[in-house]
Write a structure and sequence with these properties.
Blueprint (H helix, E strand, L loop, with lengths): L6 H11 L8 E2 H7 L4 H13 L3 E3 L4 E4 L1 H7 L4 H20 L2 E8 L2 E8 L14 E2 L5 H8 L3 H10 L13 H14 L2 E4 L7 E8 L5 E9 L6 H22 L3 H22 L4
Antiparallel strand pairs: 1-3, 2-3, 4-5, 4-9, 5-6, 7-8, 8-9
Length: 278
Amino acid sequence: MATPRNHSVLKAFTILKSFRHPGEWVTSSEISRRAKLPEASGYRLIQTLEEIGAVVRGERGRYRPGLLLMSLSQNVAVDDCLREAAREIMSEMSIRLNVTAHLGRLDNGMVTYIAKFSTAESCQTHTRLGAQLEPYSSGLGKVLLSSLPQSELDNFILEGELVALTPHTITDSAALMAELTNVRANGYALDDGESRMDISCVAVPVQDGEGRTVASMSVTERPENMTPARQALLREALLEAAAALGRKAFPKGSTLMERHAMQSQKKEENNAAASPAK
């Protein structure tokens, strides 16, 4: 028998996820609307969250996230959590397609490798966990750069020199910006011998439940094997794997709540239909 879900916990986290950015002050009624909760029950949950410091109340009865969330987030090993969530998904993909697969995140303007899966016959990259590289020359990095707010992206391109790692590396700022625009529009990035002449990569974003890019996933192949058909196959496999990782690492509580609401409504309708007419 499955363990019953605590719907109060689901509702509380749906409220916390309804805030859209740290500086936003939101009324109780607006929070309830975003969380798809009745205003009265939403307000009671908000009061409880205020008592424990998960939200703070400001002027005119408006709320925003509290310091408790920041203190809790410091205890979360994001890279470890993503790596463990990705292990089965990426390992299966690596074996099935005979490729080397990487997972990376942007850290202080550098791509950090947080997971790697390969086979004995797949294209070897000599990368290691924790290693960092400049993002402009790799598929992983291009995906991560393309997800940045425009102001942050402008600062990155203006502040750093684009050094050529191979004859194919993009070293012109305007060309890189155009490339990242295409990555954003297409939903994937390519590294065609830009970081190393002997490898080709395809990369896609890994997104959380709100559609924010939190990491990038790539597969590496030998250039002579990266035909258009092979590239398309790898791209589709990557998109499926990244979506599966997003669902596993960032389950949507709101979806569970909506399912519960539908089940409750159906139960009430069934009870009403079964009740004898007065």
